[in-house]
Design brief:
Helix content is 63%, strand content 0%. It is mostly helical. The protein folds into two domains: 40 residues; 33 residues, no CATH class. The longest helix is centred in the C-terminal third of the chain and has 22 residues. It is flat and about 40 Å long.
């Protein structure tokens, strides 16, 4: 399932608002969580996730700086920020 299909499938399971009756609260969040877990299970990473803790302190800082720059670039290019 790709991201678009997941969002369409899970749109019926939007997180409850403050006005959601208590009786429906568990059903909505459980259904949403189930959809999220199915999506994650179906879209596992092909390679292992990196372990930042195995890097030196200097390498961790460099990686964090690169990540911040990449996030800001994404926000500027895709989110109009």
């Amino acid at each position: 399932m790709n991201r678009r299909a997941f969002l369409q499938a899970s749109s019926a399971f939007m997180l409850p608002s403050a006005n959601t009756p208590q009786s429906k609260l568990g059903v909505a969040t459980t259904s949403y969580l189930t959809a999220c877990l199915r999506f994650v299970s179906a879209n596992k990473s092909r390679k292992p996730l990196p372990h930042v803790s195995e890097l030196s302190h200097e390498e961790q800082l460099k990686l964090e700086d690169q990540n911040v720059v990449a996030c800001l670039k994404y926000a500027r290019e895709n989110l109009g920020m």
